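Give me the fold.
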Amino acid sequence: MLAVAVVAGCAAAPVPFQGSGFAACPRPAAGGKLPAVTVTCMDGSGQTVSLDRLTGRPMVVNLWASWCAPCGQEMPAFQRLHSKARDNLVVLGVATKDDPTRSVQAAQDVGIRFANVFDPNAAVERGLGRANLPVTVFVDAKGAVTYLYAGPVLTDKALADLVKRYLGVVVG
């Protein structure tokens, strides 16, 4: 079962996110289809996690940045999704091509508490074959990407509809 703590095997990294307020990152497990990119958890633990190893529960992965206006518009919908589906679904943010301080401040400004990881060089975005933000990836419990969304700002309803359609999870 996927937990919200990082497994002991993750390598420690510098801890620039101390006091960020983010939840701990999901626990990696064998398998997965997200890019094999190692990113730093933004929960202040200094741990890293390989995205391709995150399995156990369905997951919605949102790539965002503080400088991306559409990202900021849809981030509250991801927080509400996290709050509503906490035990049935993992919501994970990927701060992309950003500055650590600005990422944390932008997330705090809109009340984001779900787990986030930091990808300053856009390795995840490139691994998904994308060049623009925001991008949202729907991943089943076995780690397979079931859908990749890159379009208009996601509303609560649109996000819930995509979660139901591509992950079979009903929220709300």
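DSSP finds four helices and seven strands in the chain.
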